[in-house]
Give the backbone structure.
Amino acid sequence: MIDLDNIKEIYASLMQNKLRTALTVFGVSWGVFMLLIMLGSGKGLENGVTQGFGDFATNSMFVWSKRTSMPYKGFPRGRNINFTNRDIAALKSSIQEIDIIAPKIQAYGGEGNNVIRGKEVGAFSINGDYPDYNRIDPVKILQGRFINNKDITDLRKVCVIGDRVYKIMFKPNENAIGKYLKINGVYFKVVGVFKPKSKDMGEDKSEVVILPFTTLQKVYNYGDIIGYFAITAKQNIPVSVVEQKVRTRLAELHSIHPDDKLALGGFNVEKQFKQMKGIFTGINILVWIVGIGTLLAGVIGVSNIMLVIVKERTKEIGIKRAIGASPKSVITQIIYEAVIITVFSGLLGLTAGAWVVELVAYFVNNGGGDTGMFSNPEINFSVAIKAIIVLSVSGIFAGFVPAKRAVSVKPIDALRDE
């Protein structure tokens, strides 16, 4: 065990080499500090991206129609493809792996203001949705409700509006439920106000007016045309499996050449989400490689200063050995010194890094602006504990070589040293 006398000796030894000790402490502290800053920044970037998904169903896919690029069954290339209501039942009945299928229409209403309420006007995206779409990309309801099945079957002229639409069309704290908006010349009753949970996936979702899908088709003369499908796979079924079957079935339904890759557009959310997770795993690995390399440089610095200390204390060590000090006690004291330098330096870097990350997190979370793809940088407590353990072990190794050198010198030779 280390006692008070050992501590005094260690302190005196370090004070004899103030400059070297200070530089070594700075080197190790800087390595730990930069490791924590990089880990915190990486986590902030990861949080920003994953929070951008909100509660978005990552086991989902989207598919939309385009133009054919190959002739097929007597049809020329360049033919426009339109999905129809019949495709809904055809996909459901033929692809058992589908869990949710939600057709959707985005009607932008042309140029200029398309939503009017009294003197208030605005230009917003007009979407036609089924209730099931809220299971794929859920929103937070601030007032009222979302579109329901009764709205679909009865072709009700109701709407649910984004929070940005509410701020423009209504006074602060005004109850929007039951009020009417004139949308592209037709009046709709507001039944809900929502705030999007996920961030921009192609549109500003807070500036969207949602109508019942069937109502939008009927009122704005879309006939039975569908804009695109949002689809989720059943549990434990890869989305890629569903995507391939959906594309094949739609190609059959609309006489698209099996090799025509341009006639249908799509987006596999599961694939993109896994790719992003892989990127962040790679970033974390790179951060640890850089951080550990920096720490190793600091530990080598500790070992070097201990070699200097041992060299300068050769005579003192010889006297201790001559009066009966065991090799174990000499080795132990030198290792103690190395561990103290390493751990103390690590704690300084750890404290400074944690403070900086917390300070950045405070400004990011309370700045009031849009942080985009960076949110809530943080440090895992277990990482800090592991860092201290690694530093302690590193300190032992840093002191071991100088300690072995100290006891390898014979006491008589050490006493002769000048």
Q: What stands out?
A: Residues 269-312 form the longest helix (44 residues). The chain has a mean pLDDT of 81.
